[in-house]
Amino acid sequence: MTPTLLTVIALTLGGMMVAAGIAVLFIKDLLSAIIITGFVSLSASVLFLLMDAPDVAVTEASIGAVLATMIFLWGRGKIGDDG
Amino acid sequence: MIRTLGSLIILLALGAVAAAVIPDLQMHEELQETGYAYASRGMDDTGSSNLVTAVIVAYRGLDTLGEVVVLFCASTAVVLILTLYPIGLKASEPSRIVAFTAKILPAPILLFGVYFIAHSHISPGGGFPGGTVIASAFLLVMLGSSSVPDGRGRLPAIESLAGLSFGLLGFWGIMTVGQFLNNAFLGTGTPGTLVSAGLIPLISIAIGAKVASEFSGVFKAFRNTGGKI
Predict the structure, then answer these.
(1) Nearest residue of A to residue B227 by CA position?
(2) More confident residue, A1 or B83
(3) CB half-sphere exposure, B63, CA atoms < 13 A
(4) What is the gyration radius of the CA atoms in chain A, in angstroms?
(5) Which of B79, B128, B218 should be substituted to probe chain A, the one whose Cβ sees the most A Cβ atoms within 10 Å?
(6) Cross-chain CB nearest to A55 (options B126, B139, B219)
(7) How far apart are CA B88 and CA B94, in angstroms?
(8) Nearest to A78 among B4, B87, B116 (CB)
(9) B138 touches chain A (CB under 8 A)
(10) Which residue has the higher pLDDT, A77 or A60?
(11) Are B143 and A74 in contact (CB under 8 A)?
(12) pLDDT tens across A58-70, in order?
């Protein structure tokens, strides 16, 4: 079975998401952790788009990558940089 | 470090469970009973050429109503907590780049959100995603200015009106054909045209307005009480 382009892209994105998710656990800088969390959401949104679910992709991009990231950033403003 | 290792161990355990279960999952090549009924009859029943919206708004309209109620409770709780216990930081002055972007980008984002809601029954879209897109446009507007105008009462008014109209549209079905959230009594029209699919566009607009005003209210509360980023 030869892998299709979709499989290759999905595996690449999935691997990056797993790597980013593990990186969030170990990273010390809070701002970097928040941005990486947003990146995971954005990759998930691209995956949804590739799997023919554009409406889910838009939801994931606007909620996961924009709104949730903003909430995290506000929370970081509350607890300060040292968190 | 112990907490990090603990999280990793939990993650690995979950992964092991998933790896054990996934090979036994049976994926059917063809649609099963309910899915087959939706896919084969959906367009004739509802007049919506977007089957996802037909399922969310028409067949499973009651679930969506419950979801809207859950979202209402959550956003009310967040705004209440932020009003009672303000974080106590003044909103920071936006940088020139953010201020400039916030003058240009919100308009196209807003247009896309409205399009997404209004065309949810003929192309990919829906009230919930469209509402969040509109809310993110307003978020950008808020980020681009150092103070958010108070405008007390307008956002909750839109929110209540949208929620109320969702319920009333459901009761309209009871009054006419005796079924809550019945979709077809308005006539389903020609699938693929803007004015079609019975109640679906109206309910989509109600959901979109409700979601957009709820998220905007949450962000306004955050921006007003703890704007430092």
Answers:
(1) A74
(2) B83
(3) 8
(4) 15
(5) B128
(6) B126
(7) 18
(8) B87
(9) no
(10) A60
(11) no
(12) 888 888 888 888 8
The gap between the terminal CA atoms of chain B, to the nearest Å, is 27
Chain A residues near residue B219 by CB distance under 8 angstroms: 67, 70
- Please state the pTM of the whole predicted model: 0.80
The DSSP letter of residue B23 is G
Q: What is the pLDDT of residues A12-57, one digit of tens each?
A: 888 999 899 888 888 888 888 899 999 999 999 999 888 888 888 8
Best interface-test mutation with B: which of A25, A49, A59, A62 has the largest number of B CBs within 10 A? A62
Render pLDDT for B160-213 as a digit per residue (tens, 0 to 9).
Answer: 888 888 888 877 877 777 777 777 777 777 777 777 777 788 888 888 888 888
- Dist CA A36 CA A42 (whole Å): 10
Q: Which of B227, B153, B197 is nearest to B61 (CA)?
A: B197
